[in-house]
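Justification of resources, computational component.

The compute hours requested in this renewal are based largely on the per-chain cost of generating structure records like the one below. Each record pairs the submitted sequence with a full structure-token output. That output is archived, and it is also reused by downstream analysis tasks.
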Amino acid sequence: MPWPAADFLVNLICGQDADGRWHGWYDIRLPADALRPLGLHPDQPTATANSPSPPGWWHAEAERRASRTAPR
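The structure output for this chain reads:
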């Protein structure tokens, strides 16, 4: 990582969903200025979209593919 360990915080959050399955989420926090060298700070032009969004059919197909179960 390009940051010293003291500059960021990582937490793991675990819990059960309505079906009783366990899920885990990571919460990663960095100071906003630490993102500047990577071009990810919100004040930098590279952090914003610079072209139009893909067409609606593209989003619909992505959602269809994401909802399919993986082959076994």
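The beta strands are 9-16, 22-29. Residues 56-67 form the longest helix (12 residues).
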